[in-house]
Amino acid sequence: MNRYALRTRADSAELRRAAIAIEQAAWSSLGFLNFTRAHFEFYQQLLDDHADCQLCLVDQVTGYPVAVGNCVPLACDFNNLPPEGWDWIVETAAQSNKPRNALGALAISVPGVHRGKGVARMMINGFRELAQKKGLDGVIAPVRPSEKHRHPFIPMEEYLGWRDENGRMFDPWLRSHLSAGGKIIGPAARSMVVEEPIAFWENWTGRDFAEDGDYALDGALVPVKVKEGIGSYVEPNVWFAYAA
Fold it and tell me: Of all residues in the chain, what percent are helix, strand and coil, respectively (each to 5)?
């Protein structure tokens, strides 16, 4: 028997609850990302509307997920993806009535205890298998580089050019997507945008944002730019595309 099995939130209320708990725990330190307009207005309803696209990698010994992945069907041009990235996937999936030809991957969440075991790679393959099962052309994903938060003042274009000592792409999560068969389409310069008053950022971080300027936050890929009482966080991701 295979140790893991792919199921979806549509399979049971218990899996839905477990998946929500895993996702919330995995992203709790970056909860300010819940306040992009697209996330705030559409995200949770979109996941419920497409529960059969919300994957759960279940440990068949314990019956509990070790990873969850969120994706939604939408219409896109694989070779001409917009700079809005994650927010665009959510808004397009929620509002467009065009015939859908792809899955837009939104998140892969893995509890710390299960990281480093290859389960995230299984989720990538799960997205591709689901796209094929649904008769779609493939998967698009605005990927969040896993080590970019350590270099918030480095432009994404420069970061993408970094290589490790073996000549491979520097970022391990981007390398994983490449080795899984993904193709880099280009940067998604405005993938997630959060614009809120200074008080929001001060409450979130426990820090003082009294002066205009750029502020690095723990886990953030780029600084928050504070100007005239508003803090703007414009997160760049990297567009990947996968054939089904």
Answer: 40, 30, 30
Q: Which residues of 134-146 are buried (b: 16+ CB within 10 A; e: fewer)?
A: eebbbbbbbbbbe
Cβ neighbourhood burial of 126 (10 Å; 0-12, 13-18, 19+): buried
18-44 pLDDT, tens digit each: 999 999 999 999 999 999 999 999 999
Residue type, 166: N
Running DSSP on this structure, what letter comes out for residue 99?
A: P
Q: Phi, psi (5° rounding) for residue 167?
A: 80, 5
Cα distance between residue 5 and residue 67, in whole Å: 11
Question: Which residues of the chain have a pLDDT value below 70?
Answer: 1
39 token code pair: 């996330």
Q: Measure the CA–CA gap between 234 and 213, rounded to whole angstroms.
A: 14
The H-or-E segment that residue 21 falls in is helix 13-26
What phi and psi, each to the nearest 5 degrees, are found at residue 95?
A: -115, -25
Question: From residue 75, how far is each of 30, 80, 87, 95, 131 by CA, in Å?
Answer: 28, 12, 14, 11, 13
| Residue whose C-alpha is closest to residue 7's, from 71, 72, 68 | 68
Between the alpha carbon of residue 94 and those of residues 20, 43, 45, the distances in Å are 20, 8, 9
